[in-house]
Amino acid sequence: MATRMKLKLKTVFVLYFMVSLMGLVYALMQLGQRCDCTEHDMPKDRTISRLRGELHRLQEQMRKSEATKQPQKQPLKPTPLPIIYVITPTYARLVQKAELTRLSQTFLHVPQLHWIVVEDSPHKTPLVTDLLVKSGLTYTHLHMPTAKDRKMQEGDPSWLKPRGVEQRNEGLRWLREDRRAQPGGDNQQGVVYFADDDNTYSLQIFEEMRNTMRVSVWPVGLVGGMKYERPVVEGGKVVRFHTGWRPSRPFPLDMAGFAVSLKLVLTNAEACFDGEAPMGFLESSFLQGLVTMDELEPKADNCSKVLVWHTRTEKPKMKREEALQAQGLGSDPAVEV
């Protein structure tokens, strides 16, 4: 449209120049002459008249074109991806840095992810602080120690007491306060996921959960003494759960097997994990105030694909290290592992 307008303007100026030039020539030819030049001037007059008519026609076309020109449509802005807020409890142990390094490098491949790392500690530790600074991720670093009566002791089985309760609740507290402090934060699209630092995650699981409306669910592999646990889906709805232990629980899900809408978390300010819940009921203590089974959103091809695994890193055996330390020959403690 802009190019066509430039050509029309150029034509108008050329015609105008030609008309003016011919008028000037005609006037000069008449100076000092009294002869009857009518016969000679008639073709020139007709040319001038024709050019003036063409000029008028082009001007009229330009006027109409300006009147009917449609405003240019602005390109549609892409809808921003909902942010995935991942809450990860972590505690000091020999494999902590290895676990967090592996997890952080998975998260680097996930767009629009905010990692909330909560240490089971009375203060932030240099190891986790340094790892997060170098991670390249958007993150929030928090700390909250586990209550003494819920602290696991050396040799306790992993199922004896619920773990990560205070840390997950601290992550929820920070998230609610932070979002409400932001303009429009209460209405922000997003999803909340609880990712332990020792699990293994397919990148696909994050895209599956991203558009959660209330609570989305999927299978988890290598959990509960089974190859997998999963919601059973019929007609697009969760009707029961495939699990080996207490299937009568309100929500017999692993912590890695569900995600919650950010709006649902914000509008239910009291929703949290109950550290006094019976064994295996920790997830249910959080979910039963947020959703019913009929409202669950099955993901991962109607819960038929395993995209997250409840893996555990083997505890390193340190017998030789301990023997060397007894001789004063142990590894340099300044080397961070």
From TrEMBL:
Mn(2+) binds at D198. It is an enzyme of class 2 (transferase). The chain crosses the membrane at residues 12-29. GO terms for biological process: carbohydrate metabolic process; chondroitin sulfate proteoglycan biosynthetic process. Pfam families: Glyco_transf_43 (PF03360). Its main location: membrane. It is found in: Endomembrane system; Golgi apparatus membrane. Its EC number is 2.4.1.135. Residues 317-337 are annotated as: Disordered. GO terms for molecular function: galactosylgalactosylxylosylprotein 3-beta-glucuronosyltransferase activity; metal ion binding. SUPFAM superfamilies: Nucleotide-diphospho-sugar transferases. Pathway: Protein modification; protein glycosylation. The active site is at E283 (proton donor/acceptor). Keywords: Disulfide bond, Glycoprotein, Golgi apparatus, Manganese, Membrane, Metal-binding, Signal-anchor, Transferase, Transmembrane, Transmembrane helix. Its cofactor is Mn(2+). The record marks E229 as: Interaction with galactose moiety of substrate glycoprotein. It is a single-pass type II membrane protein. One of its GO terms (cellular component) is Golgi membrane. UDP-alpha-D-glucuronate binds at P89, T90, Y91, D120, R163, R168, D196, D197, D198, H310, T311, R312. It catalyses: 3-O-(beta-D-galactosyl-(1->3)-beta-D-galactosyl-(1->4)-beta-D-xylosyl)-L-seryl-[protein] + UDP-alpha-D-glucuronate = 3-O-(beta-D-GlcA-(1->3)-beta-D-Gal-(1->3)-beta-D-Gal-(1->4)-beta-D-Xyl)-L-seryl-[protein] + UDP + H(+). InterPro entries: Glyco_trans_43, Nucleotide-diphossugar_trans. Belongs to the glycosyltransferase 43 family. This is Galactosylgalactosylxylosylprotein 3-beta-glucuronosyltransferase. It comes from Xyrichtys novacula (Pearly razorfish).
